[in-house]
Structure formats: C-alpha cells, structure tokens
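WARN no homologs supplied; continuing
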Amino acid sequence: MDLAQIAFFVFAFAATAAAVAVISVKNPVHAALSLVLTFFSVACVWIIAGAEFLGVALILVYVGAVMVLFLFVVMMLDIDVAPLREGYVRYLPVGLLVAVVMLVEMLTLIGVKANVATPLTADPSGGENTAWLARALFTEFLLPFEVAAVILTVAVIAAVMLTLRRRPGAKHQNPSEQARVRASDRLRMVKMDAVKPLPPEPEAPAEEAKP
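OK structure emitted
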C-alpha cells in the first residue's frame, strides 16, 4: 500500500466522520462546520484520485457558499438565532479542530502530489480531466446524471413545501382562488343620489374691544 492509498483512506474516513457529525450534532453551527469539513475531505479524495476539476469546483461552489446555505436553512426552520449570536467563543474549539484537520489534509495532499512519480489522472488515455469528465458525464453516465437532477429538484420542492406549513395567526395565499377571482367579487358598484351641499354658514362678527 503506497502513500496515495493511505491518504485516500484517511480522507475518506475524515469525510465519513464529518458527514455523520452533520446529522448527529444538535448545534446548527457545529453541523455547518462539519459540513465544511465533509466537502473539503471529499474534494481531497477527488484531487488525489486525479479529478482536480471536481475537487476545485467542490471547494469553490460548496465550501465557499456553505455558510449562505446554513443561513437559509436557519431561516426556513424558524430557529431562534438569538442564542446563536451570543458567545462565539464557545464555537472556537470546534472551529479550530476543523481548521487543523483541513490543514493536515492540505499538507498530506501536497506531500502525496510531490512524492508520486507519475501524475494521477482520471482519464486512462492521459487526456485532460475536464474533457474526460464532460464526455463521460453526458455519454456513459447520462442516466445517473438525470436521476440526480430529478432527486435534487424533488428535494427543493419538498423543502419549500415544508416551509409553507400553516401557522395560527399567519396570512396565507391561495393561488387557485386568486386565479378564479372575478371582477364582481372584488368590486361593487353602489348607486347613490346626489346631495346638494349646504351653503357655508356666515361667520359671526368679532366682538369689539371694550375701552
């Protein structure tokens, strides 16, 4: 077993442990930090396997936007964010742990890339990884790609439907009733007789000042 295989198993173990922490911890801030570590570890796995494009894209797209995703989830679940804003020091140990693990993974990845004699590539023919990925994704793996797109679409619709649950005292819209509305339901013509306005009353003369 060479150094690349050992690093692969280390990255895979870190990604699995961080993914379990995402769904097991109760604090949403700790879950978000674990999610960052999960994405970063998976990116390291892809880079060490020769798919550098996928690894860099994962870091730029997911790791760079994971905190925005976390904020959206907090707003959708109606979590009381007031306690989360208090005492950022208590989140420092978990943040430092995640940072240290990411630093160790980066150093390990650099060491593996420096010690490997032949560069790792996902394309057996030795071509560019981006061209190989595009060709394989839209030819050999087109069906799994479309299935994943459908699953993600269903997940987005389900998340939106969960946020539209009925709450007492909240106003809701019914699109079907709004589409069936008629002008007579919103506007009523009232006929009234014209009334001639009364003339203004004359003003009383001001009293003269007594000497």
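The chain has two domains: 1-119, 121-164.
OK
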